[in-house]
Write a structure and sequence with these properties.
Length: 725
Amino acid sequence: MIHYNQQKAIFHLQGPTYSYLLGVQDGVLMQWYWGGRLPNDAVEGLIENRGEGASFDTAFSRQPVAVPTQERGYMGQRAVSVRNSEGDDVLSLRYQGYRILPGKKALQGLPCSYVEKDDEAQTLEIDMKDALTGVAVTLSFTVFASYDVLARSMVVKNEGGKPFELTDVQAAMRLPADSYELLHLKGAWARERHARRVPMGEGSYAIKSRRGASGHENNPFLAVLKPHTTEDQGDVYAMTHVYSGSFSAGVDVGIDNEPTMMIGLCSDVFSWQMEPGAVFQAPEALFVYAPDGLNGLSHRMHPFVRQRICRGKWRDLPRPILVNNWEATYFDFTYDKLLAIAKRGAEIGCELFVLDDGWFGRRDSDHCSLGDWVVNEKKLEGGIQRIAQSINELGMQFGLWFEPEMVSPDSDLYRAHPDWCLHVDGRPRTEARNQLILDMGRKEVQDYVIESVSAVLRCAPISYVKWDMNRNMSEGFSCVLPASRRMESQHRYMLGLYRVLEEITSAFPEVLFESCSGGGGRFDCGMLCYMPQTWTSDDTDACERTRIQYGTSLIYPCSAMGAHVSAVPNHQTHRVTPFQTRCDVAMGGNFGFELDLSKQTEEDLATAKKAVDMVKKLRSTMQQGVYTRLLNPFANEGRAAWQFTDDHRVIVCLYVPYQQPNPQPHRVKLAGLEAEALYVDEEHGVTASGAALMNLGLIMPHGQGDHASWVYVFEKKDPAAEARL
Ligand code: GLA
């Protein structure tokens, strides 16, 4: 997987379908290549030494330096920036040595991808150092034998005698000169991860979050693609961050038109004081090259995220079908009301009831009580124990909502510890949703959160936790840090949060955790390391969800996305869609209900029950199979189609937002089937070869009114086996 050619000083990192070549030239680490797999490192005559004396430009502005810094006239974006003890920012990192290690080490204090056995991956560590100041960097690259994802991270050390300030750390990858487009996931609350594709010219492009969370606005994902890339063809270079806080991701097109992609911490809200001997671990970044379009990207990312980011008991287990009371009751519930909803849920086969918000302190609205994780027995007679037990008696598991990183100014916690929130003395504490953010960088705050959440989890049979985080940082600073370290506050918050998540999820390994942040405001590989699923969006409208789930699916697997059937008119858009369509679209993720089941018509309940039965029968394919996008709802007049495939079945979902009179015929071509095999959907009367389904395609039905959808379930038959019968 990783080969070192000592004579040529070339490191060849060889994944299943990609190669990445690094080399040492005059003591400088260069990136020679990233793209399709090469059989070996034979590249003589293909590596040019550009720049030297070629023009007025100094050498480094034109060399493919692997870790670009401020030195020898380098003019592009820097991967590592420091303000050294002399006050300047020159940094000449020179190669010191390397190690090739089996497997993959965990990152100190940060989430990261992992191996189950050492022989499934190799890690290359490369040491570099600036002789004058003692700034040292160790780069780490992991190549997996059966996953097409390159994982990389960086450690910065102070091996000198004087302190310096680390002001930026980015993972940089260089691309061949060509014309490209950019793809990123833009959003806002209730319309997260809308896929945006824009032409890329010659300059710098950046998306970022300085919100203290990866955020609704920009997901930590950026892809650079050839202009005509479609779902199934075209070169795609993509990256994401295993981190849940502020980030920046960008592309810098250099003098020779070779773009450099970079992802890392957001330097607007980050710097770190490095005393002699200090060690700083930067977050992990993941890079994927796919020569076969956007589905090629997803087909590489999904199994990796599912199996080498997500972990724990629930990683491979069928995810329970849940009923959540949020949109059913909001804060206005009683024990009886909850039980009535749960009973209906149990009758139609749901497996988990989730009590969302409003159960603690005096929480009858969003104005108070965050931080006081003590049940309100006046509202919920008998407390969590009684409701959990009653739910269990209905044959369902019980789950509970928390928002542990927050504090309401109107809470006992805030009255006792007004300095525990992020703030700046002498300035207003900006509230959002009437709440402030706890300073998770402080040990005593972390311990309080661990203890208060654990105490609730210990008191009753709680099988699921929804971990919410409903606002972003404004005065995001820790009052206990000295002025020289205040810019460390946001990253210290993340390290503290990760410690808390590690402790709680390890102490309660049986519990299924789902992360949430005002919907999908923290949907990233960092959170997925602790919690294998995320609430995709507070927008539960089926039509909107086709877009949100489309964008999310570019890198995140369906098993990571929560998707619920909710009431009509929809609470976010006021749109009315058929019950069946709401079910079909929610089957694009971890299926559940978020409406008052006790108030639904018999007809809708029958549809709901049919959907529950279907999910139970098909969820192994939907959660563990291959997910392929067939029709992009951002184009195609909003029509959407997607497919789940495993060895013995294919599930196809079609969605049409509005019907036209006398419609033109539309066909949807399936993908990735066995050409010779026969696929049979008895319900819709389709029996066709894989080749016919892929080339002729399914006919998009019509005539059912707006927001119509159809789910086809094809069982695969092997014609040879059939003939033998
Ligand atoms: C956030 C979540 C919702 C719900 C509410 C409760 O908005 O995204 O799903 O849990 O908080 O207050």
